[in-house]
Amino acid sequence: MVLGVSGGIAAYKACELLRRLTESGHDVRVVPTASALHFVGEATWSALSGHPVSTEVWTDVHEVAHVRIGQAADLVVVAPATADTLAKAAHGLAGDLLTNTLLTARCPVVFAPAMHTEMWEHPATRENVATLRRRGAVVIEPAVGRLTGVDTGKGRLPDPGEIFEVCRRVLAAGRAAGARRDLAGRHVVVSAGGTREPLDPVRFLGNRSSGKQGYALARAAVARGARVTLVSANSALPDPAGADVVRVGTAMQLREAMLKAAPDADVVVMAAAVADFRPATYATGKIKKRDGQEPEPIALVRNPDILAELSAERARPGQLVVGFAAETDDVVPNGRAKLARKGCDLLVVNEVGEHKTFGAEENEAVVLGADGSETPVPYGPKEALAETVWDLVARALPPATDA
């Protein structure tokens, strides 16, 4: 693997990414730009990777390093990728060892941008990103947060652990027979987690959902080239690298966020566990326990059926809607009935319980199709279920059209 590092303050975070890559068994060659060495020195990269480090094409000329490094790579990841590096890559410039490596690489390439918000939003940068994505590169959306100085906004390097997950998935997909970036150019919206309906300032009605399945779907979609919007309800998981994360709490907030994001989406996936009911009234003060008195009954009202609403009011032709159903018995028959009621294209049905699915790393499900199809997914990692869902979605999507 090749880790390209360009000249931004986030270069120090690439040390953590390098550690994760080497500890997972990969042989990593670090190729920094000259500017990157102002932030992290050559000795650090050499010590962490176990390889000599150079920025120049003139080093070890007899080995033709400016060609050989890219030719031999299984994956190239550039983290951080500055606006300057993205521009050079998009225009095929080859002024140093990193840009030469990018030109000669015939393997998957991942860019993890990091820059100030104004630079990321500039039309030139946006066009360069679009060009790289059209050519098949994975350009991760930057995170939102604290930048250099007092600035805050979109442009922060995603968490190194999440960049590692993208690299792992891209590398695995590249090795799979017939694998392709079949969601490139698509926008997918995924909900995850569990809604909470407040009773009073300290209590709520909720469920056991951790958000792990929805986050696995988001990560897999990023690795397959999609632009991903993740609507996250009360999940403590780190933001998936490359996904735009919208945080919500209640079912009504989740509904608002999904309806706002859906009009621009090719695929909408409702993986969140949404409360069917909410308290009819909200107590502005903590509900007190009074000696000798039983509590007042809590009246509930029904929440909107977000999945059915998204299915019935599709914002664009050919949009696919995928739902999730948690069942405790008669899993497939109940799932078939729910699929008909909701009107979605695919319904992922799994059996849940106190020690099943919720909060676990594994899942087992059946994916039911509106066409009568039935795809069982055996017990295994939630990311395996995510890949199966996207396989089915990719086959069902109409051909992409240029906007």
From TrEMBL:
Gene: coaBC
Descriptive protein name: Coenzyme A biosynthesis bifunctional protein CoaBC
Pfam families named in the record: DFP, Flavoprotein
InterPro entries named in the record: CoaB-like_sf, CoaBC, DNA/pantothenate-metab_flavo_C, Flavin_trans-like, Flavoprotein
E.C. numbers: 4.1.1.36, 6.3.2.5
Molecular function per GO: FMN binding; metal ion binding; phosphopantothenate--cysteine ligase activity; phosphopantothenoylcysteine decarboxylase activity
Keywords of the record: Decarboxylase, Flavoprotein, FMN, Ligase, Lyase, Magnesium, Metal-binding, Multifunctional enzyme
Membrane spanning residue stretches: none
Cofactor(s) the protein needs: Mg(2+); FMN
Family, similarity comment: In the C-terminal section; belongs to the PPC synthetase family.
GO terms for cellular component: phosphopantothenoylcysteine decarboxylase complex
Cofactor note: Binds 1 FMN per subunit.
